Each structure stands twice: as C-alpha cells, then as structure tokens.
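Suppose you are handed only these lines of text.
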Amino acid sequence: MGLEPQPAALAETRGLCQTLRGDTCPRASPVTRLLCLGTADAFAHGARGNACYWIEDAAGVVAVDFGPTALMQARRFGCDLARLDGLYLTHLHGDHIGGLPVLLVELVYGQKRTRPFTIAGPPGTQARVEALWAATFPSVLEGLPFEFRWLEWDVPGAVPALGRTVHAIQARHDRLAVATSLRIDGPRHRLAFSGDTGWQPELAALVQGADLFVCECSGVDTGYWGHLSVAELVQHRDELQVGRLVVSHLSVESRAAAHRTAALRATVADDGLVLTLR
Ligand SMILES: [Zn+2]
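From them, the structure of the protein bound to zinc ion can be written out as follows.
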C-alpha cells in the first residue's frame, strides 16, 4: 500500500502506449498503470491535450477528468474505451469535462454500451454534465441503452467509488464553483491529483503518502492565486511527501521551466507517458 516504508517500484515509458495494447491489467493484478492522455493547460499549449489521465489497476479502468481532446487521445494511444468503467472529475471547467459530449455518443453509438457507466465528481456534477449533454446532443439522452450512475464527492471527505476510495478537498481555483483535489486509494497504490488549484497546506496533507502525485503546474512564477507554478512547487517541495511528483497541466513556458529546474524533483508529464507502479 502507499504508506509502506518502501516506495512502490515505478517504471516509466514514453511514446505510444504499447503497454495498454494486449497487455491489460487483469483484475487482481498488482500493477497500477497511469497513462497521461492530456498534459497541457486549458489552452492546449504545445499542441498537447487537455486534462485526462487513464488509470488501470486491479479495480478496473477509470479516467480522471475528460477534457475536450480526451476521446481523440484515447484513440491515439490505444485505450480500449469498452473497458472504461467511469470517470473521476476534479472539477467542472471546460478543459476538464469538455470531452463529455463526444464520450456520450461514443458510448451509445460507438461502443453500443450496455453496462452502467459511473461519473463521480464534485457537488453539482450530475446537473452540470446533464446540462452539457442536453445542450449538445439532446436526442441521444432519450432511451439510453445503459445506466449512468452518479456520485458526488463529500468535500472534504472520502467516498467509495468504483472499487477505490476517493478523498476530496476543496481546491483554490474558482470562487463560483467547487473545484477539488483528489487522492484515490486503489487496491494497491495511492494516486493523487491536484486538479487546478493554488497552493494550500491542505494539499500537502491530502497527498501525503501517495505513490504518485499528479500536480498541476500552469505557471513559471508565483502570482496567481488559483493555479500553481514551478516556483511555488519548488518552495513547497519538501512538504510534498509522495513517492513521485509528476507535474502536468503545463504551458509551454512552465514545461520548459520544469525541465530545467532540478530542485523541482519531478517527472514532467507528456502526452503518452505511462507510469507503471508495482
Ligand atoms: Zn484546467
């Protein structure tokens, strides 16, 4: 588990996701895989995708966030959408849920899905996502051939969701919407996601002991309350007691700064990066 004294063994591969093709994680597998499907900020800077992380572990397959580019990236990197059990959403901004309209038509017409699909997110998730679908594909919602199941985080709190326990705290991001940071306690490993947030001590407490922490890093320098930067993460690096810090949600400038800043002690995420925990 994540709090064992020895850190989880972690392997890293880049490029097309060969490990997810024909070598899937069977249930009861001790392996947890994280595939980065979108590592750019809201503006798709660097011609990279918006936020989406594909997770395979012994509990099944789930994605964290589903930005506008997520479906295209799932195809690009060979993800089997039929295996996707559901989504965990950090917050409801467009760069994190903008792929949900085309996911809906993919599930209904492409996959011809019959088994339930779970969407878990912050308070207001069901109403917001259903409004998004009603605005974009209203007729698809009539006579759905499978069930959507909805879960909304206790904030702060912990909710069982799709075989894992998801701990949520309120992020510092949007005063008009509940954004969250999440720690996902899976069967074998603990993965944490900052979502979009400015710095707060509660973030360090949430992620403590996680095997992997995927942290947003939108900026280079301090100065904006609602996002994190390379400078702030260096400043607080010793407070982040995690097996591996992975920075993502990057601009062109913050990606370059993260690569050249050794004190960050982080893996710089890229589209197609696969991190395997054993
Ligand atoms: Zn974002």
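What can we learn from it? Helices lie at 70-76, 94-97, 100-110, 125-136, 201-207, 230-235, 252-260. The chain has one domain: 10-277.
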